[in-house]
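Hi everyone,

Forwarding the result from last night's run.
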Amino acid sequence: MNKKTIYNFAIAAFCVTSLTFSVAAFNEAKAAKTPAAAVPGQPVDLTYAADKALPCVVHIKYLQNSKIQEVAVQSDPFGDFFDPFGMFGQRGQGQNQKRKVQTPKKEGAGSGVIISSDGYIVTNNHVVEGADELTVTLNDNREYSARIIGTDKNTDLALIKVNAKDLPAITVISSDDIKVGEWVLAIGHPFNLRATVTAGIVSAKARSLGANGVEAFIQTDAAINAGNSGGALVNVKGELVGINAMLYSQTGNFTGYGFAIPTTIMNKVVADLKQYGQVQRGLLGIEGQEVRSYLDSQKDQQKEVDLGTNDGIYVAKVVEGQAAEDAGIVDGDVITSLDGQKVTKMAELQEILATKRPGDKLKVSLLRKKKAQTVEVTLKNEQGNTKVVKDADLDVLGAQIREVNEREKEELDIKYGLKVTKINGGKFKERGIPVGFIIQTVNEEPMKELSDLSDVVKAANKSKDPVLYIKGIYPSGKKEYFTVPLGE
């Protein structure tokens, strides 16, 4: 090979090498704009997902102001000696006393996910519950005050809002689309460390821990720690598949597994909180357990049971007046699928029901004495009907109410109560409750503050028996009892 040939070969090789480097540089630049495809046996590039999702995850600061509360304390046998004038409570050895104490100011922090550009943010209920002030800080350090739109303890979700526009909103997809073994990122603000990303895989789906009323957690080995609550679980495209909620630990810090609320549940909760102010739950009306667990419990009792399957949900009890009873489901049935979706775990059944509302129809496939059949169920609410359940506030009572003052307490020899100062209409007028009446208990709960009455009214309105049982006293000292239905 002569020098000219060698030179031409070298030039060609250099050009090929340059082209290779150019293509690599082009691919590297492109990788910042599109997610890398997963190649069997090769690492997955998660930088795209992080870049896309990080701006959508916020830091939430929680503040609960110091408050004065009345607490019961055991009296000190030496109380009379150190407190001869009874300034700190009633005297009497061995008796419970009431003392007013000032609670300390509480501060906390968590994470949230921007789901719309106009300022709606999803987080956990336990991140915002009881907060007097919420401060949201974006990834670019912009700071906003937030207000609570609605909360749901059963799923541990909350919807809050900041007054802002054109915020970076995350893309939300159905968590049904993710698979066990798929790579995910957990994004949040653990230990007040801003904008932290951890990676792992989906370890399991529809996991139940018994922590919430409704749960079908996505389990992941991506590290989740205190402060991650309310943050985002995203796929390799940076799309939201879950809201980080819990970690499994014996130390309080991450030791292996974290748990996220799937977007299938989140989407329904958010829609209900926006539209109704509370979650509309379509209830099937059964009590039961997984077939495998039921069979194991029977074996422990030396009983051999053949249900015709080892999978499904065993119906231990049908709730009277609820949807399952109306559809003809009976004790001992085995539910195998809902609307064609196979159910083998209670968490799977809960996840499907969590997307439904009262009045929705559902095809339930089941085995009865090993024979297959399908029934149509119309789901009901907690009250056993298909109406929308709304939060009832004190306006429904049609009255102006205040806490009794010290003079009224002394005159009537009472320790607490809420006085009706004006009747405008509504439920109180319908039941003949007069101005001046002092409410002492409602549904057996003592009425010390207006918030006590508000809480009882809301709870009663959601119950199967939406009625207020009111006990109180007139200014004359005469005691009275009223029943106030909250229904239409």
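The longest helix spans residues 3-31.

Cheers,
N.
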